[in-house]
Amino acid sequence: MQEKRPGKMSNSHQDPLSRFLRCAACQSTLTPARVTKKSGRQYQYYAHRCKALYGRQAARPQAEVFALIDRTIAELRNSESFLTNLNSYFRAEREKGSRQFHAQVDGINLQIQSIRKKKDRLIDLFAEDSLDLADLRARRAQYDQEIADLLDQQKAILNTDENRLLDSICESLDRIKSLPVAYLKAKNITSKARLLREMVQEARVSESGVELTWKAPFGFIMQPKVLELKPHIRPSSGQTRGVHTPDEDWRRREKSKTKSSSADSVPAQIRAILEEVKMDFRLWLMRSAG
Asked: Which has fewest Cβ within 10 Å: 104, 188, 248, 267?
């Protein structure tokens, strides 16, 4: 292996962020490189020939890039209470949906039991000569069809059960909350890069900072419209402590701004955004299962 000349920049393919960083200005991939100073000390950089700078070489020190990424990840880390609130919100939705789900399934079971009793009664009616054989067969076929239709309804309810979806959302929210904590606690660059790649698809480096392209499901929560809900999704007080609902004070303030707005208009907007988050999770889980 040849000795590096002092001040000479050379490629370093073992870098943990290799093929992960892009230039925000020209979208070129930043190549890991190592510079050896006259003192013999080595420094890690990310460099490329920037098309926005007419092909001139641009380089950023590795420590500086990680500092920018750390700052961005810290913003997600600071969203921990919001993620907890979202988790509680979706868990409350799960409890509510579970009650409705079981009520529907139990209702169908009761209908099926009632029809089966009628079907069993047909034999007695036939034995008492109240029904002839043709009527017996027709009535049995009718009841069998009604039971089959109810079982199809029950199957449809089971296949659209929201509980598994909401459980997956809550598990993902826990992961979204824990990974940034682990990243910021990591002691070495290799560990940080491994955790970073679990959360982020790629990073675009500019003069002002780093923009991260989040992987699913992180990207569902890091959307600006979702993050804007931070002040408005919080723990409620009283008997529903721990269940997170839209900020009532904010709703009253918005209501006072325009008399035409109904009292439920703002919560409806918040719910619409959270339903979009649910849909994002649903599609992602379906693709993952496929």
From this structure: 188
Q: Which domain holds residue 188?
A: 165-197+216-289
What total of structural domains would you count in the chain? 2
**Shared domain check, 193 and 278:** yes
The answer, as to whether pTM is greater than 0.70, is no
At 92-136, the pLDDT tens digits run: 777 776 666 778 888 888 999 999 988 888 888 877 777 788 888
- Are 246 and 223 within one domain? yes
pLDDT digits (tens, 9 = 90+) for 190-221: 999 999 999 899 999 888 888 889 898 888 88
Q: What is the DSSP string of the chain?
A: -PPPPTT-EEE-TT-TTTTTEEETTT-PBPEEEEEE-TTS-EEEEEEEEEGGGTTEEEEEEHHHHHHHHHHHHHHHHTTHHHHHHHHHHHHHHHHHHHHHHHHHHHHHHHHHHHHHHHHHHHHHHHHTTSS-HHHHHHHHHHHHHHHHHHHHHHHHHHHT-HHHHHHHHHHHHHHHHHHHHHHHH--SHHHHHHHHHHHEEEEEE-SS-EEEEEPTTHHHHSSHHHHTTGGGEEE--GGGTT-EEE-HHHHHHHHHH-TTS-TTHHHHHHHHHHHHHHHHHHHHHHHHH-
How do strand 233-235 and strand 210-214 relate by DSSP bridges? unpaired
Task: Give a yes or no: residue 210 inside a domain.
Answer: no
Q: Is residue 142 part of a domain?
A: yes
Closest CA to 24 of 208, 199, 198: 208
